[in-house]
């Protein structure tokens, strides 16, 4: 839109929502993305949130391995020019890299050289309140790139030029609805889930036609009257019950089932919404054709701790107790490491154990998988209640990884954090925070005698045994991890700005590199012209910074002055 058109339309630069794209040079040779390529991606590409539909976060590349990773060196960097928390993995399709940043930007780069092809900048509304001003990546389909925005739109961009193709409104950002996830694309459907559980919204998952942007189906995560599960709510609590679906789901292509993680109930104190509160703090099995809920498993009932379980479980073929089965594995924010069995129309409990210290659960019922609660550590109205782990749980949204070589799950865990708050009844005002407590009353403190906080853990899900652990003395671990067939585990997540690589079998630290900022985003590995690269976005902010701010002064050496600013770092082995 030209300046003249803006004036004629009655708009001014401060209020018109005009997104822009700048082209340094269109992409000449772009490989269309098909169902076959997403279901069985080439080893050198990273086209989905965790590379593959199963969500394992595993690269089959072996050129960089335990014997030569010591020679890893930066080959190019790219500054995004954006502040706040960068949480997206770079998405790579045959030599083209797409980088999503906070503030609604997408940058297309040459994955070999770092040269910019184009940049899309979304013009966000001036009155948008962004509780989590970030993005976790873009989805790919055919010749388009899909972005979910914090002002609650899905935008399709031309992959070669960055030019918008369609723009569809999902919900109303003024009511606290927003999105931060990478869209999941399945058979030509662009599937996203809504955030905003802290605003008393009703969560949902929705699908759009990849070509036109037309809505195909919408499934609410809180059942209405007459729907299965509605009887787990009292009165009209379901209308503002939370259940945000703000992380990308995983997909079982054999049974055509999407597994989507669902967030906590709203507001936080469970006494304000009596009942089990389906489908909050659960995993849903959805039919991608129509959005129908095929099955579910609720990790914990009547959530009162803000323990979102939005990180979708990994799909792993497993042998345990003398039998083979298809599993769902989820190290939960509720501090329980969950092993479930997935069937086309059912999810069965297999095992669950605490992977960090917790005083909330006394155990897990062997038959049902229902956690056994200690009521002394469940928040209620009018009384301050302390609990461990803290509000951010044993593991927040940063994803774990699974190695097909070692058969181990690698968990970015947080230990020795406790929290608490006093439940307080407040009226629901659309578009305003509705927590059930005052934000200034939320506590975060180290457990007595704590000597470390972050833990990179390696677990054998088949036996429930921890194989190794790396401790972080003066930082939480707040970043997704990735495993490779070179027996490496890639991890950032700390306030010291280091990117680290570990031996996947032993936990030995093999390599580290200080970056410009802290790293929350998940690392990836890809290949161009026969060279394997490792890439990650560095850029601290959002919840990682909030944890730092809460602990500064309480823990010796806990630094909260972490520089911000996004930079894409790309590494390769220095060939001597």
UniProtKB/TrEMBL annotation:
Signal peptide (residue range) = 1-24
- What are the required cofactors? pyrroloquinoline quinone
| InterPro entries the UniProt entry points to | ADHI, PQQ_b-propeller_rpt, PQQ_MeOH/EtOH_DH, PQQ_rpt_dom, Quinoprotein_ADH-like_sf
Q: Which residues form the Pyrrolo-quinoline quinone repeat domain?
A: 46-343, 477-534
Q: Which domain of life is it from?
A: Bacteria
User: What SMART domains does its record include?
Assistant: PQQ
Record Gene3D superfamilies: Quinoprotein alcohol dehydrogenase-like superfamily (2.140.10.10)
Write down a Pfam family by its short name: PQQ
Q: Which family does it belong to?
A: Belongs to the bacterial PQQ dehydrogenase family.
> What is the recorded name of this protein?
Methanol/ethanol family PQQ-dependent dehydrogenase
Q: Which organism is it from?
A: Bradyrhizobium jicamae
């Amino acid at each position: 839109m030209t300046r003249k058109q803006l004036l004629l339309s009655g708009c001014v630069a401060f209020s018109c929502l005009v997104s822009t794209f700048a082209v340094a040079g269109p992409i000449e040779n772009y490989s269309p993305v098909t169902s076959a390529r997403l279901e069985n991606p080439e080893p050198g590409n990273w086209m989905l949130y965790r590379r593959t539909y199963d969500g394992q976060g595993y690269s089959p590349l072996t050129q960089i391995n335990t014997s030569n990773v010591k020679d890893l060196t930066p080959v190019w960097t790219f500054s995004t020019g954006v502040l706040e928390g960068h949480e997206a993995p770079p998405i790579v399709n045959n030599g083209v890299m797409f980088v999503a940043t906070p503030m609604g930007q997408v940058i297309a780069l040459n994955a070999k050289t770092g040269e910019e092809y184009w940049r899309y900048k979304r013009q966000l509304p001036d009155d948008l309140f962004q509780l989590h001003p970030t993005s976790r990546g873009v989805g790919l389909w055919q010749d388009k790139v899909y972005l979910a925005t914090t002002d609650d739109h899905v935008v399709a961009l031309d992959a070669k030029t960055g030019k918008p193709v369609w723009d569809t409104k999902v919900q109303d950002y003024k009511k606290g609805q927003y999105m931060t996830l990478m869209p999941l694309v399945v058979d030509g459907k662009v599937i996203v889930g809504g955030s905003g559980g802290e605003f008393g919204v009703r969560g949902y998952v929705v699908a759009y036609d990849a070509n036109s942007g037309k809505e195909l189906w919408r499934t609410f995560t809180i059942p209405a009257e007459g729907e299965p599960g509605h009887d787990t709510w009292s009165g009209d609590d379901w209308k503002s019950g939370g259940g945000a679906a703000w992380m990308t789901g995983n997909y079982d292509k054999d049974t055509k089932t999407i597994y989507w993680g669902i967030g906590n109930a709203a507001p936080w104190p469970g006494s304000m919404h009596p009942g089990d509160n389906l489908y909050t703090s659960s995993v849903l099995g959805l039919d991608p054709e129509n959005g129908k809920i095929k099955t579910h498993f609720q990790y914990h009932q009547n959530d009162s701790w803000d323990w979102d379980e939005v990180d979708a479980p990994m799909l792993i073929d497993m042998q345990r107790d003398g039998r083979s089965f298809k599993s769902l594995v989820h190290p939960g924010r509720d501090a329980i490491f969950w092993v479930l069995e997935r069937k086309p129309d059912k999810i069965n409990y297999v095992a669950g154990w605490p992977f960090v210290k917790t005083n909330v659960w006394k155990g897990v019922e062997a038959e049902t998988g229902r956690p056994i609660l200690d009521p002394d550590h469940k928040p209620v109205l009018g009384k301050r209640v302390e609990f461990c782990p803290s509000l951010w749980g044993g593991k927040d949204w940063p994803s774990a990884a699974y190695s097909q070589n070692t058969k181990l799950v690698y968990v970015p865990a947080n230990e020795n954090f406790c929290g608490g708050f006093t439940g307080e009844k407040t009226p629901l005002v659309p578009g305003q925070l509705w927590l059930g407590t005052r934000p200034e009353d939320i506590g975060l403190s180290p457990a007595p005698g704590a000597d470390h906080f972050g833990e990179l853990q390696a677990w054998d899900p088949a036996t429930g045994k921890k194989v190794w652990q790396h401790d972080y003395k003066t930082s939480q671990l707040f970043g997704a991890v990735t495993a490779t067939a070179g027996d490496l585990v890639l991890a950032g997540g700390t306030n010291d700005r280091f990117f680290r690589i570990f031996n996947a079998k032993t936990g030995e630290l093999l390599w580290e590199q200080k970056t410009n900022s802290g790293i929350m985003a998940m690392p990836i590995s890809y290949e161009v012209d026969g060279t394997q690269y490792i890439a990650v976005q560095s850029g601290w902010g959002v919840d990682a910074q909030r944890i730092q701010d809460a602990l500064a002064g309480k823990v010796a050496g806990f630094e909260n002055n972490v520089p911000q600013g996004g930079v894409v770092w790309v590494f390769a082995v220095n060939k001597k």
